[in-house]
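Q&A log
Question type: sequence-to-structure
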Amino acid sequence: MTATWTTPKTWTAAVLTSADMNTYVRNEFDYLKTNTAYGAAAALTVSGGIITKTQAYHKVEGESAAADDIDTISGGAEGEVLIIRPNGQAITLKDGTGNLDLNGDIILSSDDDHIALIYGSDSAWHPITAPRTTHTFLVNNFVCPAPGTDWTPELNGVTLGASLTSKKCWLPLNFLKLGDVIISYKIVGDVTEAAAATFDC
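Response status: OK
Response body:
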């Protein structure tokens, strides 16, 4: 028998029949035994960095419909699980600011990004799964194929002589692991050029 979910019934002063027991009790237990279903995501809006959990699955919108941060999730009890996703704007869960213990900030940038959290005995939310943990790093380890005539290493990075074109250098990122994704980067330096300067990265 395939278990299916039936909308719960509000009981009045009526006789509980065997058919009702099968529909509203037996079948529901069978469904819960074979499925974990939280129903549709209920909408929440961040207010002052806080949201309040009212069910197990939420979609979260930033205050004033803008990207926003969450540092506190109210309404938790030990052992409860919460799944959240954004609702149109990027949402950042801030580690260690309120009651979130995440081992680093977590950015939910797309409505397809979900995170599952569990409420611990320390009265904090901890990640069960996370789509992405972001880290900022500074790299200055350029590899120059023809130093002295093309790009050349120096104390603050690399330098290139005037009026040179189609010159290459590499920046090894051998500390990245399989599955890591670079979501943004900045090249910092000084460029002086009478006509134009173009970087292809």
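Response note: Residues 18-34 form the longest helix (17 residues).
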